[in-house]
């Protein structure tokens, strides 16, 4: 495997989930695999979990990792070809990625969408520029359209907590104060459908996700109906996709709380974090027995370790 950027197929997903569970039991079982190798973790946006969990994963595999917060500590990058660079951006992606390609064995990149240029975001332009001009194997640390390490950790968490072979998994839109990317929702849908779960997506009218990610899911605009008998409820805000990057709904009644789960007594609740408490999700759920958010965050280490081990092979 050269790129870990998206869901590929169920058999690879199952293999990665198993590998992550093995690493969770014995984190240092492959601590020679990455010996002498170096990974560059490049962040164009903030991070808590992804940064730390991927560094721990690399360390568990005997690899050195170097973090570069490119949004704050590096030169502003020009991504477009053929530009006359007489404005604010000091370095071209061709030059920067070429240099980084010579320093590292693997690159990992976080690059959120602009939420203004739908075409460039939809084709994951920045991720592809880094891949092309560095020539290195690449791991996505959340791109414009996907967050595959989060999704793998989410699948591991579902695998650990599911009570039936094909659980009912509900992805529900939640309110937020800002326009938020689609990556987590897209990726969660892509992986959960791909892993064979019974997936329902619920959101207000106008919040349809890119259909590339939702084929095979039931779309239900009535949140109460969608939540009935759910085994897992994944709470997430995203901005509109069709009216790209817009906030169309501020209806606070979409926030998930205990009362909304009265028809889903066994439902476990998931969120990738960071979460806006009492905007997206109530304190009572986050601090109660239904919440899996800390399990998800812990599993980020083993998901990253499983993905990295595939790239090192
Ligand atoms: N990597 C996890 C989520 C990152 C991002 N959340 C955010 O930007 C939240 C920002 C805030 O709440 O101000 C998202 O949902 O795609
Ligand atoms: N869930 C997640 O990716 O968190 P960070 O943005 O803090 O890395």
UniProtKB/TrEMBL annotation:
Carbamoyl phosphate binds at residues 47-50, 75, 110, 147-150, 272-273, 300. One of its GO terms (molecular function) is ornithine carbamoyltransferase activity. Catalyzes the transfer of the carbamoyl group from carbamoyl phosphate to the delta-amino group of N(2)-succinyl-L-ornithine to produce N(2)-succinyl-L-citrulline. Is essential for arginine biosynthesis. This is N-succinylornithine carbamoyltransferase. It holds the Pfam family OTCace_N. The keyword Transferase applies. NCBIfam families: PRK04523.1 (NF003384). Its EC number is 2.1.3.11. One of its GO terms (biological process) is citrulline biosynthetic process. It is an enzyme of class 2 (transferase). InterPro entries: ArgF'-like (IPR043696), Asp/Orn_carbamoyltranf_P-bd (IPR006132), Asp/Orn_carbamoylTrfase (IPR006130), Asp/Orn_carbamoylTrfase_sf (IPR036901), Asp_carbamoyltransf_Asp/Orn-bd (IPR006131). N(2)-succinyl-L-ornithine binds at residues 142, 176, 236, 276.
């Amino acid at each position: 495997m050269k790129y870990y950027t998206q869901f590929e197929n169920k058999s690879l997903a199952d293999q990665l989930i198993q590998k992550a569970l093995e690493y969770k039991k014995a984190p240092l079982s492959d601590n020679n695999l990455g010996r002498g190798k170096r990974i560059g973790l490049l962040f164009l946006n903030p991070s808590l979990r992804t940064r730390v969990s991927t560094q721990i994963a690399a360390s568990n595999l005997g690899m050195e990792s170097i973090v570069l917060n490119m949004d704050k500590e590096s030169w502003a990058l020009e991504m477009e070809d053929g530009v006359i660079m007489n404005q604010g951006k000091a370095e071209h992606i061709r030059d920067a990625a070429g240099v980084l390609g010579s320093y590292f064995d693997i690159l990992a990149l976080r690059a959120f969408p602009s939420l203004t240029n739908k075409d460039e975001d939809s084709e994951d332009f920045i991720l592809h520029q880094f891949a092309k001009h560095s020539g290195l194997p690449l791991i996505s640390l959340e791109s414009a359209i996907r967050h595959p390490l989060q999704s793998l950790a989410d699948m591991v968490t579902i695998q650990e907590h599911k009570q039936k072979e094909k659980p009912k998994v509900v992805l529900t839109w939640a309110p937020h104060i800002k326009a938020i990317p689609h990556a987590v929702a897209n990726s969660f849908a892509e992986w959960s459908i791909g892993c064979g779960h019974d997936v329902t997506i619920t959101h207000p009218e106008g919040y349809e996700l890119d259909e590339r990610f939702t084929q095979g899911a039931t779309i239900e605009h009535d949140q109460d109906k969608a939540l009935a008998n759910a085994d897992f409820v994944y709470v997430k805000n995203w901005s509109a996709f069709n009216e790209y990057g817009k906030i169309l709904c501020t209806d606070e009644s979409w926030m998930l709380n205990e009362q909304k789960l009265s028809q889903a007594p066994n439902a476990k609740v998931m969120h990738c974090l960071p979460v806006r408490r009492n905007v997206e999700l109530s304190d009572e759920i986050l601090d109660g027995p239904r919440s899996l958010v800390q399990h998800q965050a812990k599993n980020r280490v083993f998901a990253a370790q499983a993905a990295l081990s595939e790239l090192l092979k």
